[in-house]
Design goal:
mainly alpha, 3 strands, rod-shaped, single chain, about 50% helix, 2 domains, about 10% strand
């Protein structure tokens, strides 16, 4: 794209020099600010919008903003002297310059927030053995969930189930297999786990005792 940089202040009676930078190199272009090759009714310091219909509205507006930087006379001389393609390049170059400056200001005014890394604490598996402390395991799981910043209820349940082993794991996934919505929250999961494995409600202990006492073909209701 084409970029213009004023090397001396423009006026109606002085020669104005700009450096035109292209992708292929650079050259000095002297422009007489008092010359007028366009509409005879156009002054040396102003070019009407109807004289530049080849420019899109955003390009024309960009050149008007450029005039506040290098002066109206300089922009008017440029519009009467440069080809339409070069005028497009100047407008685009100035728009891109404004965008870069806006982005730079936004970066300075909005400091980046430090990223907080989550901790992946190890949790021992709970298998549901006789005398295995369930409460301590639940404390470990709660601590790991907090450290990992897990907030979704179902994600908490999934993480806790992944830390089960042995018959505790078989119990949890068996419940989920028969009823996919059985553990609707993490609190429900913990409560059902306590009822299944924590004395005196240990259902596995009760079932084992029943099997030891069972005789013949009587069911549990007969006892």
């Amino acid at each position: 794209p084409l970029h213009l940089v004023a090397l001396c202040s423009p006026s109606n009676d002085r020669l104005v020099t700009y450096r035109m930078k292209f992708d292929t190199g650079a050259e000095d272009l002297p422009l007489d600010a008092s010359m007028s090759t366009g509409n005879p009714n156009t002054s040396a310091t102003h070019v009407a919008r109807e004289d530049c219909l080849h420019l899109a509205d955003p390009e024309w507006e960009a050149l008007q903003r450029l005039s506040t930087v290098i002066g109206e006379a300089a922009v008017a001389t440029m519009l009467r002297t440069l080809s339409p393609k070069e005028q497009h390049g100047v407008a685009l170059g100035f728009i891109m310059k404004e965008q870069r400056e806006t982005a730079a200001r936004a970066t300075v005014s909005t400091p980046s927030t430090p990223r907080v890394e989550s901790l992946k604490l190890h949790v021992n598996s709970y298998v549901g053995r006789e005398g295995e402390p369930l409460l301590r395991w639940l404390v470990e799981v709660d601590t790991a969930i907090t450290a990992r910043r897990i907030v979704d209820p179902l994600s908490k349940v999934a993480f806790a189930m992944s830390c089960l082993g042995g018959r505790a794991r078989s119990w949890a996934y068996g419940r989920r297999l028969t009823d996919p919505t059985c553990f609707s929250t993490y609190e429900v999961f913990k409560e059902e786990l306590r009822q299944a494995f924590e004395p005196p409600q240990n259902e596995f202990r009760s079932r084992a005792e029943f099997l030891d006492l069972q005789q013949g073909k009587y069911d549990v209701h007969a006892y």
